[in-house]
Specification:
Alpha-Beta Plaits; 13 helices; 22 strands; alpha+beta; Uridine Diphospho-n-acetylenolpyruvylglucosamine Reductase, domain 3
């Protein structure tokens, strides 16, 4: 069947299998010469595609254990984050780290070692995982964690499924009092002001910025910076429900693929101007869906880019080089006249994983239509990222090359050694790993 990542690029024929439970996953591994596990298909590129065998873990979605005293939760890898949130938010619990969509699986979150708007304080999701069960190429199932078989654990978190199939995981939820986020909005007239706001706001739990990547000159990188905290019951205005019942938002669906010309410099530029000018600086209270998952209210929003699909370009630059590097990136994008419908800036804290994406510094995520002009521009952006000591996010990548990977991930040799130990014949493979020479 035809399958793709969330960007609808590339789209290829694959042999799609399904696994309900550990034994079914082991059978698929045993009977396949090459295989990669797949969650809900929210990796943007080709990291969960294998023509020989792509193993869907969605049927493995059970909750295995929960301790209401500590918040420790153990689930199978195919459970959706949305299901965890729907079940546990009314009980006063939230996930310690969340990406920008809740339609991802637990296994996918670990394989990509996802980060959120709180990385500067909480690290990535892998920092909160206490244990994993992984099915290996030789038929064994091993439990691992930070202190139990730490080499397998370190290579599996962020390892993009290349060490084995994640079967289940345990981690701790965090307590919350309400479903609301106390959000403080700031306008920043340029990139420097946005970065200063991030630096001055590190005591906030959450921070993220929307960037107008078409603004130039003195307004290069103008932004809206959103700071956030889980709201307490005693600080909510009386007009809001202080309970833990989820706020039900109406989802809309993009019914068809937009024509390729729908998103262009003029339409995106007009939207950016209205969005920036229409923002209301100050404090307000929004539900967690609005703060963490704004795009989830638009189902199949990837169709906005049309049938050819789109690529997301997410890079991180070390902190010392972030101001100069991000300025150069935005200047090049602005000169190109190419429109990124979504442009997001975040601040990362310290992290030193094998293939985990974050490093201490700033990360920029951009969306572009998948066409030849975009691919040419991204080669130029690659060179800027490399010159400033940065790297690309593998969960978003669909076209990067092996040279930038080797240069950007200094612990790649350690990952390769661990992978060779647990999968010496390279059974676990994806289009991405083949493209990058992993």
């Amino acid at each position: 069947m035809k399958l793709s990542g969330w960007g609808n690029y590339p789209r290829i024929d694959v042999n799609l299998l399904g696994a309900r439970g550990a034994e079914a996953a082991r059978d698929a591994i045993r009977n396949s010469s090459s295989l990669i596990a797949r969650g809900n298909g929210r990796a943007y590129g080709d990291s969960a595609l294998n023509q020989t065998a792509t193993l869907s873990m969605l049927p493995s979605d059970r909750i295995l254990a929960f301790d209401p005293a500590t918040g420790r939760l153990e689930c199978e890898a195919g459970i959706l984050l949305s299901d965890i949130i729907d079940l546990f938010v009314p009980r006063g619990w939230f996930v310690p780290v969340t990406p920008g969509t809740k339609f991802v699986t637990l296994g996918g979150m670990i394989a990509a070692d996802v980060h959120g708007k709180n990385h500067h304080g909480a690290g990535s999701f892998g920092d909160h995982v206490e244990s994993l069960r992984v099915a290996l190429a030789d038929g064994r199932t091993l439990s691992c964690g930070p202190s139990t078989d730490p080499a397998l654990f370190a290579a599996t978190r962020g390892g993009m499924g290349l060490t084995g199939v994640i079967l289940s995981a345990a981690f701790k939820l965090i307590p919350i009092e309400t479903v609301f986020i106390r959000q403080e909005t700031h306008r920043a007239s340029n990139l420097q002001e946005a970065m200063e706001r991030f630096e001055d706001s590190q005591h906030w739990t959450y921070s993220v910025a929307w960037i107008d990547c078409l603004a130039g000159g003195n307004n290069l990188g103008r932004s809206l910076v959103y700071l956030g905290e889980h709201a307490r019951r005693d600080e909510l205005p009386t007009t809001l429900n202080a309970g833990l019942n989820a706020v039900h938002r109406t989802s809309r669906r993009v019914p068809f693929n937009f024509p390729s010309f729908a998103l262009n410099r003029w339409t995106v530029g007009a939207f950016n101007e209205l969005y920036y000018r229409g923002s209301r600086p100050g404090v307000n209270f929004v539900d967690y869906d609005t703060y963490f998952y704004p795009l989830d209210s638009i189902l199949e929003w990837n169709r906005i880019y049309g049938r050819p699909g789109f690529v997301q370009y997410q890079c991180v630059l070390p902190k010392a080089a972030s101001a100069a590097g991000m300025t150069t990136l935005l200047e090049r994008i602005t000169r190109s006249g190419m429109s990124s419908f979504l442009a997001v800036l975040k601040l990362f804290g310290q992290q030193d994983g094998l293939l985990s994406f974050p490093m201490e510094g700033y990360t920029l995520a951009l969306d572009f239509p998948a066409n030849s002009a975009t691919l040419s521009l991204l080669l130029e952006l690659d060179a800027i990222v490399a010159d400033h000591g940065g790297r690309l996010y593998l969960a978003k990548d669909s076209r990067g090359g092996p040279a930038l990977l080797r240069r950007g991930y200094p612990r790649l040799s350690e990952f390769n050694a661990a992978r060779a130990k647990f999968d010496p014949r390279g059974k676990f493979s994806s289009l991405q790993s083949q493209r990058l020479g992993l």
